[in-house]
Specification:
Belongs to the glycogen phosphorylase family. By secondary structure, the protein is of the alpha/beta class. Helix content is 48%, strand content 15%. The radius of gyration is 27 Å and the shape is globular. Bound molecules: ligand 26Q.
Length: 824
């Protein structure tokens, strides 16, 4: 048997890889392609994982441990091979084993497609949480959808984003296991007939003329770091209910049979590529109900195998809803408890409200899920009845608590104006409601969810996000990881607060030199990637200023590129002016239908074309757009960044998690007082960050009282005016005066949007320019900069997802740690 860590057997491993190449591809290892070797290595690794997976699950069963089910439409896992090896503590040994066969592990890792089953922050958070849960010995399942196509692949053609399908499963997924025996049926549509049971006198509800789909789970192992725990990510595939093919075939109705198969499959076809934007598409609601119904059926079946009182489900199960997307879990759990398990309403409600908890990730109106009632009731007739009853009972609670205040009903009910307000349902049924950074939670309590907070303050709590250092330092930045371990030991891998031991080294010149040497090497690594992918030469001695995240107006990539246009004007106008060379790096996907976001990508690429090819500026400025920004290339970018751009309009970014990944890798934040930036500054000290712009309160005041007119700023700041005019004068569009009209209008024209410059770009522009000047001045002072960079790493301990998960466990889930010992 293959074992790992202390008992990893190199020779056995090598043999297994060779055998796998033969068995899978009928080849000798010397003839195999890198992709084939990737497959062979991954199967060898999976074989090692399987034993711990079995043992872990047996241990959970034996301890009868409480389990959290993390329900999420998105799990942005990235690549599995490198991460699994890291967590098995076998990375270096496997690298050596492969070296002995003349195989480069890096090349093999690059063969694996990212599992991009998510858009951005929310999906990656779910992936970090799974890593931490396994590492901290907590029983947990991630439940989601096995999208046939994940987040689209981005190509840049002529400066424009072009989307192509992400066929991530085309070579097969070596780490997944199909679990046929746990398949479940999920029903849509039809009508509900009501009957009284003649024996019990109980109401029963019978769904008729429905369509059903078979949900088949695929399990992926989630390996904990060095503790032999293996948890499960369970993602559901959709199939037509079988027996169809034979029946229909017999009747000669082959086409109908295939059609039915295709209709079923469509549910899991593709991830909706909207980040922070609600699209009321029927298929999306189908996806939500599909994976929730299947997951809840599976969880109840598992519970009932060893427990006979379903009324005590909450003692063994916690369900966390990652935003409102899985909120249909509330009425579906009620349905299963009442219609299938035979509980009465009050009993079912008690179980549901002691089991479900809700995390809010946004306050932006356009992201709130509100389903049209007619669509909702047609697709989910029984679920809709239950929602109506939840709403009816809640409204009478409001009226009892606030007599005569009918406006409270309008503000808080679930059903209003022909819509189902999912957030309201999540708050009403959830026993916990949390925001994802302190500022965000305070805004929820004081503004967006004020009425709910006043009515049920005990539900509200904050859980500041975190990230896993195993992927974003140990795997992504091996040079720095080794250096940190050499200096303070390897305790930081599972206890990131240990990084504070680096603080004393900030005054050690030698330590600082080493730290900056590593940053330099990582910049060289990134420069090579840029040369290969973009054909652009960038100087690793220039300041690497990085903004990578989804493209969204509130994240203000437009502010960044307008500032670059301003700098370029400055350099052209004052060639003698001293200017420290900069490389501005962007990476961002725009939702396919988001016009202004796509225009911004085109603008960035066009400015890049002009600036990068202007020899008169002596390479002082370079602009790089990283194509297809995703988890795997993100690791390179964080490791190489000097400056972390976190410049959202204050109050709009719930938390941000990229900010934490940069900080961990020694890049200070250039940002607004928004989301978790506030807490980052608190940890690292204001002198080690570059903060600018309106505060969240100022933004909220302007929004509520008006009083902001960008046109005044435009006419009073001629340098800014010139930059904005350059959007229209053809400078960056080969003479086309319409190319950036939407962007121009969004900044100045009140006729096109309800208000101009909704995101306060003009208002914050000068303050951003000043902050950027401070960055340059600080960077020129090598001593000062190295201290700033090191302090960022040293103070990033709070932002591990291990800390976040411990808080969820203590305040919300109440889980116990379960140890797994080595089997021999
Ligand atoms: C909703 C309905 C229909 C289609 C799509 C959606 C949808 C999909 C994705 C709505 C929102 C999202 C994603 C939201 C998201 O990523 N939010 C981010 O969550 C992070 C983790 O908490 C925070 O750090 C970010 O601040 C927040 O923007």
């Amino acid at each position: 048997m293959l074992m790992y860590s202390d008992s990893f057997e190199k020779e056995t491993f090598k043999e297994t890889v060779k055998d796998n190449v033969k068995a899978l591809f009928r080849k000798q290892i010397e003839e195999a392609t890198p992709q084939q070797i990737f497959q062979a290595v991954s199967y060898a690794v999976k074989e090692i994982i399987i034993d711990d997976w079995l043992t872990t699950q047996a241990e959970y069963r034996k301890k009868d441990a409480k389990t959290v089910y993390y329900m999420s439409m998105e799990f942005l896992m990235g690549r599995a091979l490198g991460n699994n090896l890291i967590n098995m503590t076998a990375y270096k040994e496997v690298r050596e084993a492969l070296e002995e066969m003349n195989i480069d592990l890096n090349v093999i890792e690059d063969q694996e497609p990212d599992a991009a089953l998510g858009n951005g922050g929310l999906g990656r958070l779910a992936a970090c949480f799974l890593d931490s849960l396994a590492t901290l010995n907590y029983p947990a399942y991630g439940c989601g959808i096995r999208y046939r196509y994940g987040m689209f692949k981005q190509k840049i053609e002529n400066g424009y984003q072009v989307e192509t399908p992400d066929d991530w499963l085309k070579e097969g997924n070596p780490f997944e296991l199909r679990r046929e025996e746990y398949a479940k049926e999920v029903r849509f549509g039809g009508t509900i007939r009501f009957e009284k049971d003649p024996e019990t006198g109980k109401d029963t509800f019978i769904q008729e003329n429905y369509e059903s789909v078979r949900a088949v789970p695929y399990d992926m192992p989630i390996v904990g770091y060095g503790n032999h725990v293996v948890n499960t990510l369970r993602i559901w595939d959709a199939e037509a209910i079988t027996n169809f093919s034979l029946d229909s075939f017999d009747r000669g109705d082959y086409h109908k049979a295939v059609e039915q198969e295709n209709l079923a499959k469509r549910i899991v076809d593709v991830l909706y590529p909207n980040d922070n934007h609600y699209a009321g598409k029927e298929l999306r609601l189908k996806q939500q109900y599909f994976f929730i119904s299947a997951s809840l059926q599976a969880l109840i079946a598992k519970y009932k195998k060893h427990h006979d009182d379903i009324r005590k489900l909450y003692e063994k199960v916690a369900i966390q809803m990652n935003d409102t997307h899985p909120t249909v879990a509330v009425p579906e759990l009620m349905r299963l408890l009442i219609d299938v398990e035979g509980l009465d309403w009050e009993e079912a409600w008690e179980v549901t409200t002691k089991t479900c908890a809700y995390t809010n990730h946004t306050i932006m109106a356009e992201a709130l899920e509100k389903w049209p009632m007619d669509l909702f009731s047609r697709l989910l007739p029984r679920i809709f009845q239950i929602v109506q009853e939840i709403d009816r009972r809640f409204i009478s609670e409001i009226r009892a608590k606030y007599p005569g205040q009918e406006e409270k009903v309008e503000k808080m009910s679930i059903l209003w104006g022909g819509q189902v307000r999912m957030a309201h349902m999540a708050i009403i049924a959830g026993y916990s409601v949390n925001g994802v950074a302190r500022l965000h939670t305070e805004i929820l309590k004081g503004q967006e969810l004020k009425d709910f907070y006043e009515m049920m303050p005990e539900k509200f709590n904050n859980k500041t996000n975190g990230i896993t250092q195993r992927r974003f330092l140990l795997h992504g930045n091996p040079l720095l990881a080794d250096w940190v371990t050499g200096r303070i030991g390897d305790g930081w891998i599972t206890d990131l607060s240990k990084l504070e031991n680096l603080k004393v080294l900030v005054n050690d010149e030698q330590a600082r030199r080493e730290f900056m040497q590593i940053k330099y090497k990582n910049k060289v690594r990134l420069a090579k990637y840029i040369k290969e992918h973009n054909g652009i030469n960038v100087d690793p001695r220039s300041i690497f200023d990085v903004q990578v995240k989804r493209l969204h107006e509130y994240k203000r990539q437009l502010l960044n590129i307008l500032h670059i246009m301003y700098l370029y004007n400055q350099i052209k106008e004052h060639p003698e002016m001293s200017f420290y060379p900069r490389t501005f790096i962007f990476g961002a996907k725009a939702a396919a239908g988001y016009l202004r976001a796509k225009e911004t990508i085109k603008l960035i690429n066009s400015v890049a074309d002009v600036v990068n090819n202007d020899r008169s500026i002596n390479g002082k400025l370079k602009i790089v757009f990283i194509e297809d920004y995703r988890v795997s290339n993100a690791e390179l970018l964080f490791a190489a960044a000097d400056v972390s751009e976190q410049i959202s309009t204050a109050s709009k970014e719930a938390s941000g998690t990229g900010n934490m990944k940069f900080m961990l890798n020694g890049a200070p934040t250039l940002g607004t007082m928004d989301g978790a930036n506030v807490e980052i500054v608190e940890e690292v000290g204001a002198e080690n960050a570059f903060i600018f712009g309106l505060s969240s309160q100022e933004v909220i005041n302007y929004e509520n009282n008006g009083g902001y007119n960008p046109v005044d700023i435009y006419f009073n700041d001629w340098e800014l005016k010139r930059v904005i005019d350059q959007l229209m004068d053809g400078t960056y569009s080969g003479g086309d005066h319409n190319m950036y009209r939407n962007l121009y209008n969004s900044l100045l024209n009140t006729q096109c949007t309800d208000r101009a410059d909704t995101y306060f770009i003009l208002k914050d522009f000068r303050s951003y320019v000043e902050a950027q000047k401070k960055v340059e001045a600080a960077y020129r002072d090598e001593n000062r900069w190295s201290k700033i960079a090191m302090m960022n790493t040293a103070c990033s301990g709070k932002f591990t997802s291990d800390r976040t998960i411990e808080e969820y466990v203590k305040d919300i889930w109440k889980l116990e740690k379960v140890g797994v010992s080595l089997v021999q």
